[in-house]
Amino acid sequence: MAAAVIGGVALTGGEGTIAQTAVGSVLLAVLLVWMLELGAGAGGQLAVEGAVILLAVWLQRRGTRQTTSGGG
Q1: Rounded CA gap, 12 and 72, in Å?
Q2: How many domains does the chain have?
Q3: Hey, which of 9, 25, 65, 72 has its CA 20 to 30 A from 50?
Q4: CA 71 – CA 58 distance, rounded (Å)
């Protein structure tokens, strides 16, 4: 689920593509490998993963608001 959200699949409707989920999984894997290289523990990895998911959801909501409130 995290990979899909990071890839841009909407949580509200689940609309997205396999390619978006694949991109999200690659980004998540790169992030976790980078955290391992830095020597972060399991708690640090979970905290960073959670922060990235929250950021992705916030960006999705922000983009939705801008597209629906445009034009007058």
Answers
A1: 26
A2: 1
A3: 65
A4: 22
